[in-house]
Write a structure and sequence with these properties.
By secondary structure, this protein is α+β, with helices and mostly antiparallel strands. The chain is built from six helices and six strands.
Length: 212
């Protein structure tokens, strides 16, 4: 088995390839990078997604999930940021940031979604109509309407389905996506989606009809 693993490593893949994944401390990750495996069941015409962590070969030859270690010791990044803020920001509304030295690591994945792309993502959620009430990161990628809208937004012409990360890398974080969904749900349904919220929404609709 090890001979196949070494052969795969020479081609740039497999469990013996050095891991280059890094994450920001604010992500609170403990395992190596997550990847998404898309599958389609032709018997039931259903789609699904598995969330799996990368497997790496340990020193004893056994496979295991990669664990993130704190960047410390001689591996500390020697980049220094000098930030100059004027005493009067009203008179001089500019801040000068100077970066010295060179990073000795790759940039971590972005944690926030740009406003323009966030607007596209929110519109895709709003197009789900009442399905937004119980939307989750897993359910939206299994929704045919949402995925069709994502294809149109990306101009996607491949046979394989697009991922949320194709819109922006920050959307690869399911916790971040769940937070965005909850924020939009709270804005659209400020009284919740339970019985009280339904009654409140019904009253608002009646008022709008009376005004018409």
């Amino acid at each position: 088995m090890s001979s196949y693993e070494f052969a795969a490593a020479e081609s740039g893949y497999g469990p013996r390839v050095p891991c280059t994944f890094i994450a920001s401390p604010s992500e609170q990750k403990v395992k190596c990078q997550m990847f998404f495996l898309y599958f389609r069941c032709y018997l039931s015409s259903t789609n699904g997604i598995f969330h799996l962590a990368h497997l790496h070969c340990r020193h004893d030859g056994k496979l295991g999930y990669g664990e993130l270690l704190q960047w410390s010791g001689d591996k500390l990044c020697n980049v220094v940021f000098n930030i100059f803020v004027p005493d009067n920001l009203h008179a001089c509304p500019h801040v000068l940031v100077i970066c010295c030295n060179v990073h000795n690591h790759a940039a971590p994945a972005p944690l926030t979604t740009p406003p323009a792309l966030l607007a596209i993502f929110n519109q895709l959620l709003l197009d789900m109509s009442w399905l937004l009430t119980d939307a989750t990161p897993r359910r939206i990628v299994l929704d045919s309407g949402f995925m069709h809208g994502l294809r149109c937004a990306l101009g996607w012409d491949s046979q394989s389905p697009p991922m949320l990360s194709d819109l922006h890398l920050s959307l690869a974080n399911s916790d971040h996506v769940r937070c965005l969904i909850n924020v939009l749900c709270n804005q659209k349904y400020p009284n919740g989606t339970g019985f009280a919220g339904t009654c409140s929404h019904f009253v608002v609709q009646l008022i709008m009809i009376d005004n018409i």
